[in-house]
Amino acid sequence: MGPRIGPVGEEPRMSDKDTKAMMSTEDIPQGKASPNSQDLQRSVFYSIKFFVLCHSLLQLAQLMISGYLKSSISTVEKRFGLSSQTSGLLAAFNEVGNTALIVFVSYFGSRVHRPRLIGYGAVLVALAGLLMSLPHFISEPYRYDRASPVDMPQDFEASLCQSKTLVPDPTPAPSNSSCSSYTETQHLAVVGIMFTAQTLLGMGGVPIQPFGISYIDDFAHNSNSPLYLGILFAVTMMGPGMAYGLGGLMLRLYVDIDRMPEGGISLTSKDPRWVGAWWLGFLISAGAVALAAIPYFFFPREMPKEKHELRFWRKVLTVSDSPVSKGEDSPSEQSLREPLEKQDGLVQIAPDLTVIQFIKVFPRVLLRTLRHPIFLLVVLSQVCMSSMVAGMATFLPKFLERQFSVTASYANLLIGGLTIPSAIIGIVVGGMLVKRLHLGPMRCGALCLLGALFCLLLSLPLFFMGCPTHRIAGITHEPGNLPGLEQFPACRGNCSCPLDDFNPICDPSTHVEYLTPCQAGCTSRVVQEALDKSQVFYANCSCVVGGGPVPAGSCDSACSHLVLPFMFLVSLGAALASLTHTPSFMLILRGVKKEDKTLAVGIQFMLLRVLAWMPSPVIHGSAIDTTCVYWAQSCGRRAVCRYYDHDLLRNRFVGLQFFFKTGSLACFALILAILRQQDKEERTQVTVSIPGLQQQQPLVSGPEKKPEEFRA
Q: Which helix H or strand E contains 471, and what residues bound it?
């Protein structure tokens, strides 16, 4: 960590290291005298270990609330009538707020009260979580059968076949009594609230990780800092998995669990109209963030630097042959420290700059860094990988729901229990391979290439693992006509069926699905009561052989068992993709000049947000929308998609993943080719000057490593 540089006009001040060294005798912030050593020992807020514990819990809760929307994306779509493109844009707005403030946070560095600013950011995250759940409370109760009048029980007579002599013919016009200016205004307000909440969620998360990491690194013992940061990241990596697990639990509950209609509901979680309690997860995770934020308002701006090395950690370093025991930075330590160094590194590009001067000089340094071929190719490969991860994290639950006809709860549990742990294992294994095998740049490039190659190969079987499209009367056979008006016209010719109703039933003998009982010509409804739930059947159906009864809900899929092999391949591919994380990161650290290292990491994270995490969910959502075969209509506008072409959905979703993986593989191949060419040139030079010195220096070598090995 270099010295902090103040703005122009600020008088010279003592460096952070000198300040920390004199904390026992000098004044602490806010003009209060530093407490004596006994007071420091009694106060838990002067313990860096307690700060590590608090920050681990805070980042865990923050990542949980940030990832929770992805676990309930399909539920939010159904509840508020959103397309996948809109929901993808909603998920991307988290990164918009984050990217908007990251440069300013980088400029201010440690000039602020870091713990207190972390607390303010956490409070903003908690408020954003509460705001995200607000649409549930200001919206009317969810009506899964919109055709039912207010005074009629849902899912009853409105969906049945009624004679045209009693009910006038439905008109194709999408206007109905429920469409009003108030309804549309309320819809726009709900969507606007969610977009605002996502933006605030990203803004609140900006100071949490960088300030927390730098605070730990400043006041922990030099030998203990890698251990503390390793514990921090190990705990926080469980956040996304817990988000999917929380989503799996919450979506089992009905959305209006706080205002259930009289007589209950006749839906089950397998019904396509089921909407889970998506809002409850935001309340729980927001409460967790708020509780985790409390201690930060009691931590001091600076605390005495930790004096003693942990005993068991000293033994580990003694028996280990890692560079840490030799007083050098290991790859793991450097990879942990770089994210915090990038925050101050942007300030260090030019001393004594004002904010305006800093913003003016930043583009020139950015272009200089991007001209480096290894850096540019590594960042492009990570952009491709991150685009793949962002799209999968956002829409994989929905894909599993639609493709394999599983519930949203089960899809989230599969992702949280299989894919996320596999990715964590891949990151850990990649770091261990780099450290224990002392991999050089060539071998790191080869490891990245192999990981990307096998990840790509595992994607090929996914194109063929899926379920066929449901047979829906009036849609799959005659997709160009109005639903139900051309398929089987004679059998229900005397029925007047609402065009905007959705209450699917399944004919088990033919596996044909009807949008409503009216579409099947059903005139009666039967409810079979059971101990724990009730089953709805429809009878006297003129379009069904034998007249029924037929069960309510969509037809069961004959290939739902393929979801487990599919998820096994996806999880294995995630582990192999994560294997490239640490080696590619080390290529950046060793591939640029020392003075540009911290800036390069900052640029890397910024480009990943702008080029991958922001556009990828929108791209995936748009691709998913193109596979829809039947859209629900709401007040004349296209709302949520009811049915997809499964083959087209699988080919386009997996195809996008395959495209990004191919781009990453191509970048790693070019990196390896450049490294081989540079290695060949350097071997030739070394052979001419000092024969015999042709051994490649490992990535974990000391400061004597020269960046010229990566010259263009």
A: strand 471-472
Using CA atoms, how far residue 364 sits from 4, 348, 356, 358, in Å, is 22, 14, 14, 11
Cα separation, 71 vs 395, in Å, equals: 9
Give mean pLDDT, residues 541-567.
84
In the chain, the percentage of residues whose pLDDT exceeds 90 is 33
- Give 144 or 10, the one with higher predicted confidence: 144
147 or 97, which is more confident: 97
In the β-sheet with 534-539, what is the strand arrangement from edge to edge? 524-529, 534-539, 550-551
Question: Are the C-beta atoms of 393 and 66 separated by less than 8 Å?
Answer: no
Q: Which residues, listed in sequence order, are joined to residue 524 by a DSSP beta bridge? A: 539
DSSP H stretches of helix in 139-276: 181-204, 208-219, 225-236, 238-250
**Residue 316 CA neighbour count, 13 Å, CB half:** 10
pLDDT tens digits for range 76-110: 999 998 999 999 999 999 888 788 777 666 556 55
Q: Which of 600, 342, 317, 320 is nearest to 438 (CA)?
A: 320
Q: Taking the mean position of all CA atoms in its chain, how far away is CA 405?
A: 23
Q: Which residues are CB-contacts of 250 (< 8 A; sequence separation ≥ 6)?
A: 72, 276, 277, 278, 280, 281, 284
Give the lowest-confidence range in 345-359, 395-409, 500-514.
345-359
Closest-CA residue to 359 (of 540, 106, 149, 154): 106
Tokens standing for 554? 């969509």
**E strand or H helix at 100:** helix 84-108
DSSP assignment of 168-198, as one string?
PPPPS----TT--HHHHHHHHHHHHHHHHHH
Band of pLDDT at residue 598, cut at 50, 70 and 90: low
pLDDT tens-digit readout, 287-303 = 999 999 999 999 998 88
Burial class (CB in 10 A: 0-12, 13-18, 19+), 50: middle
What DSSP assignment string belongs to 651-680? HHHHHHHHHHHHHHHHHHHHHHHHHHHHHH
Q: How confident is the model at residue 637 (pLDDT cuts 50, 70, 90)?
A: confident
pLDDT digits (tens, 9 = 90+) for 322-362: 443 343 444 444 444 444 444 444 444 444 556 576 667 66
Asked whether residue 263 carries a pLDDT value surpassing 70, the answer given is no
Give the CA diameter of the chain: 101
Query: Residue 382, CB half-sphere, CA atoms under 13 Å: how many?
Result: 25
**DSSP 8-state class, residue 609:** I
Q: Domains in the chain, please, with CATH?
A: 44-143+185-307 (1.20.1250.20), 372-466+561-679 (1.20.1250.20), 483-553 (no CATH)
Q: Is the peptide bond before 565 cis (omega within 30 degrees of 0)?
A: no
What is the end-to-end Cα distance of the chain in Å, rounded? Answer: 28
Sign of the four-CA dihedral 345, 350, 351, 357: negative
In what side-by-side order are the strands of the sheet with 512-514?
471-472, 512-514, 505-507
For residue 187, what are its two tokens?
């819809």
Prediction pTM value? 0.79
Amino acid at residue number 142 = Y
Query: How many beta carbons lie within 10 A of that of residue 27, not counting itself?
Result: 11
